[in-house]
Amino acid sequence: MRTRRLTTVVATMAIALGVTTAPAGAQGDKADDVTIRLVTHDSFAVSKSVLRHFTSETGITVEVLAAGDAGAALNQVILTKDDPIGDVFFGVDNTFLSRALDEGIFLRSAVPNGSHVPRSLRLDPSERALPIDHGAVCVNYDKAWFRRHGLAVPRTLEDLAKPKYRDLLVVENPATSSPGLAFVLATVDRFGDDGWRGYWSRLRDNGTEVVNGWEEAYNGSFSAGEGNGDRPLVVSYASSPAAAVYFSEPRPKHSPIGTVLDTCFDQIEFAGVVKGTEHEAEARKLVNFMLSEEFQQDIPLQMFVFPARSDVELPAVFQQFADVPEHPAKLPPGEIDQHREQWIDEWTDTVLR
Amino acid sequence: MSRWARGSMLAVPLLFLGVFFVYPVLTILGRGLWPGGDLDLSPLREVVGDPSMRDIAWFTVWQAALSTLLTLAIGIPAAYALTQFRFRGAALVRALVVVPFVLPTLVVGSAFLAVGVEPSLGAILVAHVFFNYAVVVRTVGGIWAHLDRRQEDAARLLGASRLRTFASVTLPALRPAIAAAGAIVFLFTFASFGVVLVLGGPTRSTLETEIYRQTAQLLDLRTAAALSIIQLVAVLGLLMVTERLQGRRHVALRLQASRDTVRAPRSPGERVFLWANLAIAALLLGGPIAVLVARAFETPHGVGLEHFRALGTLHATSVLFVPPEQAIWNSLSYAAAAAALALAVGGLAAFAIVRTRRAGAIDAALTLPLGVSAVTIGFGFLIALDDPPLDLRTEWILVPIAQALVAIPFVVRLTTPVLRSIDPRLREAAAMLGAPPRRVWREVDLPIAARALAIAGGFAFAIALGEFGATVFLARPDRPTLPVVIYRLLGQPGPSNFGAAMAASTILLVLAGLSVLAVDRARVADVGTF
Amino acid sequence: MLSVEQLTVRFGDQVALDDVALSVDDGEIVCVLGPSGSGKSTLLRAIAGLEPLAAGRVLRDGADLAGIPPQRRGLGLMFQEHTLFPHRDVVGNVAFGPRMHGAGRAAADEQARAMLALVGLADYEHRGVAELSGGEQQRVALARALAPAPAVLMLDEPLGALDRGLRERLVDDLGALFRELGQSVLFVTHDHDEAFGLADRVAILRAGRVEQVGPPAELWRRPETEFVAAFLGWNVVMGSGTGLGRVAIRPDALLLDGDGALAGVVRTRTFRRDHWRLRVALEAAGETVDVVVRDPEPPAPGDRVRLAVDPAGVVRLP
């Protein structure tokens, strides 16, 4: 009790100090040139100019530590929570949020910009993990393939199990792949505890291919990917159609890829101040900055997901090509954390054995 | 050499191994099996009792055995063809077959997939042969090229048929080399990660992929620790068995300079044999590489350098972006640091090994890192190296250290045979002329070993260049190497990303190829495995 | 002066040297002569400190060398295979010893050059050792061993790898060189000519034991045991039937004489440059003897001959 009170007092003082000594505006503050560490995964991207702006505004330099994929990065932060390797962690998504919170790796940080984020995304009531971006894992389809074969594009999850779409779908193993897991969660949400396994039996019987990672699925099996794939349906992202246009030289007028909006699962990505940091105030500033208009506007073309804030303008290629599901599947993080292993085991039993 | 000197020579490698391997691994295993301070072996019991885990362990063993047999079956004839015959470009071919070995599995996996290979057991086996071909060709071929032909000639003159001669004269002489090569291949395929993950598909896991999943994905350190221990025990067992197979005392082979044994193929049968092997090598090794390179130059406007240029512009605004020259420079400098470390540690170990009776144990200890999951070591670094003076967790030096751990066994294997072949009478002669033991080492062993060390260093450099598994799991300050750049590009959709990834892979290929060629230049008539 | 007392060396259960006693005086050239496997190399290595002793002592000028490592014993050893350093050139090899004894680079090279001149290889300084002929390598090895001026120089089969003509010439050259330098030398060989041509004293070694020691002439005239006699090429006659008893007879002490006491049949006849060697089967004894004959037309195989014995060439055996 005592210590907690003490910590709160100290923390409040620190915040107070931070608030009073840090400049609110864009005047360059040369008070202390602090460097803080942002731990994240290898898919993290933000414009250099945006970060530079942050530094010139606050005098805080950000050193980015990339640590593999999202799961590995999170687990490294958890592993080292008694002696943290960074000050801010970006990259835990809603499928692992509960674990992050249970392990207590974040500090409470109600930052000013947080008020701009829609309530639906604020999955952590304790405001330790703040939503920075969100996207959707959905089934993408190869437009040209369906045109060529004169087949109508599937519209719903149910469609995927229909015989006319036999041997056309490739999914990722939820045990090893984040989008793979998200898709399975979508089916859990849609069909409920009693029905989702039956659905997967039907998918399996319908010739669904399973691979271990997104890369094997998209660039290996997907017919509109970079390999000589033969499957026109793949579990990927709602932003893949936009990426397919943006990262194509020359840019096509239409995206070769579409999204089956009924199959989407909402993926929200969170960041937070790492507990145990020695630069709490500065870390808070960075998290706050991540929710600033400048940073949020930068997100789509850097990471190909949607900014958490709904009040920022999206770039043209996103507006044109990125598909936005109206009602993506969702599951409470707590429930995901509780049943994840069990669901993965059951899925493995149903599909792989 | 005095026990003192020998001891201090051994101290450096053992210290290195202790601090950067044993300590981190024990720490992370401890987290799993010593939660809250008490030894809890229940995870081991759980794992052993779990039928799916047993299946995984069994699959790991038999796919490795199968891969090894296959690689030996293809590699031994190739070893003969590529080292016994004189033909144009022989030296180049011998050098180039090493390039696949040093490539990161991630790059090769993509090449396989891009060509349309479906994840399957067959794909795993073919990929394993692809990577480990060079191990067999160079290890067995290296010795074969120097075997005294006269022993075989004598057998033939006494009436033995070709086959009989091979079976009773050549094969026994080659047995240590075959055992050595087989052991390394088995070790690699046993601990194979990228290949199994990418090309095995979800129905096939090995201990290694399972450890990765438990550690990096689930953070279930208990199960991961149990699996790691099982893997460690298996690897130790393997190393001991090979030590036995190789023979305790290295049989004094009558070795000739290769100049005397290499000849042009004489009969049509020999010519067919040679060309068949060259064709297999071209197809097996050259195929995936050709696919890679082709994709790097394939643009919507035809053949061009677009993707290479894109390496400098794609994602250029991102904070994690580095221009390709920077990535190349990072790769080269990390590799140089790793090579220097590996040379220092491995070289000293080699010197100590040739003088001690416990050579087998030391060699096994230094080879262990090859059989431990990279993610275990990486995570071990995180929690072990967090106190001064070893607060190295987020320091750049960890990358070369991790790379060195993988390269050291090769430095040892490349240097000890040369050291062993130093006539002990040379040392005695030096002693009789007044040189104290340390001086003997400096004046006799060191100069003679220098060339072997140079070659070993070059090889360590090439290995470090392509190392990926350990580096990706370290929370690194952003100084990405080429493999990391490739990994990032491959994780995003869009033809430009993929093309750029292929371009970067091609650059990596060329760098690796150049280092291997440079190393081979330095070799003349020599006695050395690999 | 070097002396060896009760030297015993064992390899496992095998006794390689058994209670060997030997000495080399200042300026003396001593040879240990024996067949292959008799322990000659082991003896040198034991004295050098390269093999541990099971018993006995090695003394240099009265001081026991036990516990003193090879590099500090002040002894030189020239190996049978020369064992030149492959990574150094000729002068590098020869200057090695002086360098190890503290001479600076320049001084060591000076001494090396002087040595090379002494062995007749003055212009060979910067040649690589792989380019040298057998004889040249031998001389470089010799120069290298002599350069640090060891108290006693030990040589293992110094002329073994050379052809006969070269060998004979070098025996004289070496002898002259050593005497000029006043160098104490201990060398081992299996070749009689080498031993007798070079040494002041010869010790015959058999299976690790010294059978006989003495100046060459004495050894040659008076072998004391059956082994020594046979080793030196004497006929060993058991005596039954010849009326001689157990004796050794020099081949040139048996003369073709129509009235000779021994009758026999010529079995083989071998040409030996300046004499013929006949193998004669004695009728009475059932033994075979070698006979040296300087006749240009000696008896042929199958001929019956009679032999007389010159008592000066007969030695009674124990």
Question: What's this entry about, in short?
Answer:
The complex is a heterotrimer of chains A (353), B (530) and C (318). Chain A has 353 residues and is α/β, with parallel strands linked by helices. Helices cover 42% and strands 19% of the residues of chain A.
Strand content of chain C: 25-35%
State the end-to-end CA separation of chain C. 33 Å
- Return the CATH topology of the largest domain in chain C: Rossmann fold
* Named CATH architecture of the largest domain in chain C: 3-Layer(aba) Sandwich
Average pLDDT of chain B works out at 84
Strand order of the largest sheet of chain B: 1-2
Gross geometry of chain B: globular
Describe the structure.
The complex is a heterotrimer of chains A (353), B (530) and C (318). Chain A has 353 residues and is an alpha/beta fold. Chain A is 42% helix and 19% strand. Chain A folds into two domains: 2-134 and 268-307, 3-Layer(aba) Sandwich (D-Maltodextrin-Binding Protein, domain 2); 136-265 and 334-351, Periplasmic binding protein-like II (D-Maltodextrin-Binding Protein, domain 2), CATH 3.40.190. Chain A is built from 13 helices and ten strands. In chain A, α7 links the parallel β6 (169-172) and β7. The termini of chain A are far apart. With 530 residues, chain B is mainly alpha-helical. Chain B has two domains: 1-33 and 305-524, MetI-like (MetI-like fold), CATH 1.10.3720.10; 41-288, MetI-like (MetI-like fold, Orthogonal Bundle), CATH 1.10.3720.10. In chain B, β1 (298-299) and β2 (302-303) form a beta hairpin. Classes of the chains: A alpha/beta (353), B mainly alpha (530), C alpha+beta (318).
